[in-house]
Amino acid sequence: MFDLVVKNAEVVRPGRETERLDIGITDGKFTQLAQDIEISEARDAFDAGGLLVFPGIVDAHMHFGIYNELSEDIGTESRASALGGVTTGISYIRTGQYYLNRGGPYAEFFPDVRALTDGRSHVDYGFHISPIENAHIDEIDEIIDEFGVTSFKIYMFYGGHGLHGRSDDQASFLMTPPGERYDFAHFEFIMRGIQRAMERFPDKAQYISCSLHCETAEIMTAYSKIVEAGDLTGLEAYSASRPPHSEGLAVAIAAYLAHETGCANINLLHLSSAKAIGSALRMAEAYPHVNFRREVTVGHLTADITTANGTYGKVNPPIRPREDVEALWQAVVDGAVDWVVSDHACCRPELKLHAEHPDDIFLAKAGFGGTEYLLSGVLSEGRKRGLSYSRIAELLSWNPAQRFGLLSKGTIAEGYDADLAIVDPDETFIVHASESESTQGYSPFEGHELTGRVKHAFLGGRQILDAGNVVGPPTGRFLARPTPSPID
Q: Which has the least CB within 10 A, 91, 129, 220, 310?
């Protein structure tokens, strides 16, 4: 007896052709896929009506609580996730300003993060952690073994450039102990700490990784001075102030450090330009023993400097000109991109824009939400470029799940978590922030036309989105990684 049978589903799976099947679900897991499962064999039934049924989307790059209280933000922004068919999110967390606004050891910090988030999310979730202080490197083993966090992040520009623009006050921003520096040497020692952890935990080694935000502080600071004194404005100015070759150089530095330290699993985050992608591919050729993964965001694939809603579109790295957008899409089509994410960071207008100078791009805060448009955005723009449904399932579900140790996620197969995103591929809609579950109140995608709307979503076999409406209480679970594999 199944708990639920999903009838008439056009099942989308990574590595396979789309197939019309019924899906049997028991105890939150997929237990049978067949051409015809009798409704009498299930306690409940749902008719997918021939719509596309994707595995639940795994949004591997989010920022719950960066600009809002974490306990509130995870509730509202996980509702936005569900609205877009995202059933699992992995959020970045760190010490310093924003998030919990404090420093100190993760042994004290992370339990407080859990206390603020447990029982409040509408989707399953996990965390990536950033070793900001020197002492955090010594905590890496504990973070993996006791907290179930296997992925770590380096912000390469924090050592000499601010989150929103030029800054000379990194110690206060990062809340680091006196005398410490957040610089290339610190990045090296983080990688060495991660590499040691891979040796200590061989059964988890392939899921332990180092992610990097690749921008070079010195170049950005110099170009910011030049651009701020010139005639460029808005997103064009911000892109010029953080030029693409800053990304390319940072990628090269990160790659060499990975080679030097033996840190084998490297994730190059939110690559935004042709130069960044080009550098990443050259580094993969130069260091074939490093297991690189390349990430792009739906924002950088969907919007450009002329269409991203002005100052509301400020993000790091910047939204780029259209030629960079098309270069990113070519990389996706060529198989050079491993996954696509939202980089969701809800930043309300009163925080986003400077009160006295709302049009000044350099005074605005960086970041915006967009998880609710991740699947629709990739589906809409990807199909124009010949991207198959199966490839979209790889980019949005299977690949990030495998990399980050979410071994029960990412596909529709027996034994896997019964997470589903049901999409009408032919429904066209206009993005309006007023229709989102996010508290952000605006969107860089405002007015964009997308084709492919998420209609329903299931988390562990329980419906969390019904005809475009989030339903039910928050039942998302914290996922200690790596999760058990169905095929072990």
A: 310
